[in-house]
Amino acid sequence: MYIFNHIPKCGGLSYRALLEEVLGRDRVEHISINLEEEYHPDPDAHRRYTMLMGHFGVKWNEIVGPGREWMTALREPIDRVVSTYYYWRYNAALSPESPWLHMAQTMSLDEFIDSGHYLVLQGIKNAQTWQLADDPRWRYHTVPEQDALAVAKQNLDKFSFVGIYEQFERSVECMCKYLGVTPPNRVPRVNVTKTRPAVSELSSATIDAITELNTADIELYKYALRRFCSEVRPSEAA
Known about the structure:
Elements: E1 2-5, H1 12-23, E2 28-32, E3 51-55, H2 61-64, E4 69-74, H3 77-91, H4 99-106, H5 109-113, H6 118-124, H7 127-133, H8 148-156, E5 161-164, H9 168-179, H10 204-213, H11 215-231, H12 234-237
Parallel strand pairs: 1-3, 1-4, 2-3, 4-5
């Protein structure tokens, strides 16, 4: 039995499509605990599923799915922020009721990054660290900010599988080996962000602004990448 903390824009829906193929669609459930509300999930409602996936922090893992093996995937933080902005700008439906979407669809990338709105920052400021340390929703944090990176690293050590977005195909191979299933002939790519610039095309000022918001995520990503590379042969991780 497994639980997959799906960090937004880290390939989670591609993993979901793959897992549904190798485990069976009726054995995988995707749930979300990310709205601005209190949750009181019943773990008994999920026991029949082999895999639980969703946008929720690790503090929910033992509540939603006690005793399960933990899985997740991370992405290079600057690229993840850029992907998030352009996904919200072009892939999501116009929604003035959702400030983060409305702002992405009406502001430039630089304006968006500098907006300071907490619901925007919740999605683009050290979001990977918070999801793996506690809860991605700022209102429900229980870990002090100065401790978040250390706690996220400690939690990451508890994960049985940690994929890397930039090495998706190799991550899929490692995940299938871990699950004891045969990798599919074709690895699915789902929910890809539409037209967007590469990080290399951004101005240095834009990159600096995103970097300043993601110092913890950058360190956490390096930590995860070192782990990933240590678990595969050097020639395969290159």
